[in-house]
Structure formats: structure tokens, C-alpha cells
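Dear Dr. K.,

Following up on our conversation at the group meeting, I've run the structure prediction for MFS transporter from Hymenobacter rubripertinctus. I'm pasting the input sequence below exactly as I used it, so you can double-check it against your construct before we proceed with anything downstream. Let me know if the numbering doesn't match what you have in your notebook.
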Amino acid sequence: MSQTASAISPPGSAATTMGRYRWTICSLVFFATTVNYLDRAVISLLKPYLEKVFNWNAGDYADIEIAFKVAYSIGMLGAGRLIDKLGTKIGYALSTLLWSLAAIGHAFVSSTLGFSVARAALGITEAGNFPAAIKTTAEWFPQKERALATGIFNSGSNVGAIIAPLTVPFIAESIGWKWAFVITGALGFVWLALWMVVYEVPARHARLTKSEFDYITQDEDPATAGLEVQPKVSWFKLLSYRQTYAFVFGKFLTDPIWWFYLFWLPDFLNKQYGLTGTQIALPVAVVYILSSIGSVGGGWIPLQLIKNGMLPFRARKISMLLIAFCVFPIVFAQQLGQINMWLAVLVIGIAAAAHQAWSANIFTTVSDMFPNRAVASVTGIGGMAGGLGGILLSALVQKRMFVYYESIGQLDHAYYIMFWICGGAYLLAWALMQAFAPRMEKIRLDEGV
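The predicted C-alpha cells came back this morning:
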């Protein structure tokens, strides 16, 4: 690492500023996450068009959604391992290249089976985003700043979901649904060029001062601090720690709720309130604008508690418990929607914001509890658990329940049940995380295991 005097930080000590380059890295990861979610959200907005072309029912759409989730779950496990092996620069670039090609590939599909294959390809390749993003954050931010940095880049998932309803229906209406997949998929290549030019790990960054490097790596083992590729850790070793299961259960119970918002919110607005095409854009955008606020706010809360002298693990746990309670009012979405649709949109938006606040913190627990060389692998294991939870929710609840209630003309009952599931999931997840890792102790890994 260079120890030149050319600082990359704004005026002030490294201990009081993240530094301009860290902000740049955070912005790049935010951009990648935006594109990642934009690509996966396109199909939910094109569902009305595709239903007409391919004669889909609720079960067909659920099958396509399940294909994505199965592939995403498998991909998360492999992607985390691969990124820990290749490092963030190459691993992130490879994932983005492949998912962009898969997103564009949807435009060339001509059957329902083809869409299942295309969604599976997108799922397995998009799985690399979060392991790479969390590892990047762990490499460039000290522990106390990671939740805020995670909240900022994770808000890209909301921005992607905001951009989608504001653009995809208009593209579909003006030049056809196929171009919606092509145009959104091509954005990944823009990010790829920027990433390859800009990114480097702290240990090899030519303009990083020693004081800034020491600030970034203050929580790490001096022997491996700042290195991109470090000795690998086996899955069996990671699965022997209670901390791994705290993260796994937290993701298993709460990730499916976000999948539900992402894939079913446009359908809810269509079936419950009769919104179609571009009419859906504004309420969906409002939900995800609130989510963006929640994502950044979720990272800000524990940072303030830590600044006021609270231990990091306690600040994280208290923040997550408060966030879990903020989701619960979604159980009243149906009743509020009977008064006014926008009340339902508001309470769903608050719950989605709380999910993103939760996400900013639960992702950060991985780097709180594990050294950098295991972060992507543990993130992948938890991501796979979250995907499996989503598969079970789709297969056992959404597909059977939604198809049944739709067949008898009482789809509102299915949404009522789902909103109760959403409301209770986070409190249960928090209780299990508390049971498995009450103090979130950081583990030490033996070399070469």
C-alpha cells in the first residue's frame, strides 16, 4: 500500500470522515444494486402484458417466480464462495456481466418454459451482488460505519424498484415488452466499465494514506487486513458456529417478505384496486421511495447509538427490535385500504422501509461476527437460506393459497393472510437471532481451514 501524502479524504481526520474514495465505492455498489433490482423487477411490471401473450394464471407466474428463487438460492451459496476466492473486483464484475446477459435474454423467450429458464439464469447470476457488496463494504469501512454504508448501497434495491414502474410500463407501451428487458439489462455493462476502472482493494490502492488504511482496518487482524484474497474457510467450518445460524434464520424468515413485495405488489394493486399499466407506477414508486428512506435510516440508527457510547452489538440488536415492531402495522393494510387505497400503500411502504432498515443491519451482523475472508461465504449461506424461505413461501402459501382464493373470487383473503405473515416474521427472526448470538461475538478462524 502506498503511504504517499496525497490523501483521498476530505479535510479532517480519517476517524471523522469516510473519505471521498469510500463514498465513490459506496456509490458504485449502490449503482450495481440498483441495476440488480431493476432487472429482477421488470417481469412483475410486464406481468399484465405477458399474461395475455402466454395465457398465464397465478400458478404459472408463481412457478416462474419459484424458478428464480431456486436458482438464486443455489447461486448465493456458490457466489459467496467464488467471490471469497476470486476477490471482490473480479467476482463482482463476473456476476454483473452474466446477470446482464441473462436479463437481456428474456427478450428472446417465446414460451412459459422459456421464461422459467430465463428467470433461473437471472437468479443464479444475480446472486453474486450481495455477497460481493457486503464483502466490499467490509473491506472499505470500519465496523461502526458499515451499517450506514450498507444502508446506503442497499437503498439501491429500492431505487431500482422505483425506476422500474416509472420506466418499464412506458417502454412496453411505446416500443414493446421485449425492449424493456433489453434496455434495463444493458445498464449492467455501463456499471461494469466503471467498476473495472475505479475499484481497487485498500492494500493495493495507490493513493490511500497509511492513516486512512489504519482507520479502515482498525477492526481486522493486522496479518490479513486489507487483502482481497485470503485463506479460504470451509462451509463445514462456518456451519459449526452459532453466529452463522443467527444470520441464516434471520434471512430465512425475512427475505421472503421482501420477495413478496417485489413480485406481488403490482398484482395486489391491480387485483384489489383495478390499477393497470402506467397507473401502477406512482403507488409502487411511493412504496420504494419510503423503502429507500428506511434503508439509510436503518444504518443511521445504530451509528448514532454507538456514537453515544453503546456497544456495537447492543446498538444493532436494539435497532433491529425497533425495526421489527415497525413492520407489524402491515397486518391492517386490507382494512385501511377499504377506507382509501393510499392508506394501504402507506402502511405497506412503512413495512417495506422497515424491511430495508432490517436488511442494512442484518447484513452488517456478518462482518460484525466474522473476519473479512469469510464474509462473502457467510452472506452466501444466509442468502441461500433466504431464497429457500422464499421458495417455501411461494410453493406452500402463495401458489396454493392465491390460486385457491382467486378461483373462488376471494383473493383479498389471501392477501389478508399474507400481511399477517409479513407482520410477524421479523419479531420471530429477532428472537431466534437473540437465541443463537445474544452478544454477536466475533469469531477467530484458524488459518487454512
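Two things stood out to me. The chain has two domains: 21-218, 240-442. The chain is about 80% helix and 0% strand.

Best regards,
J.T.
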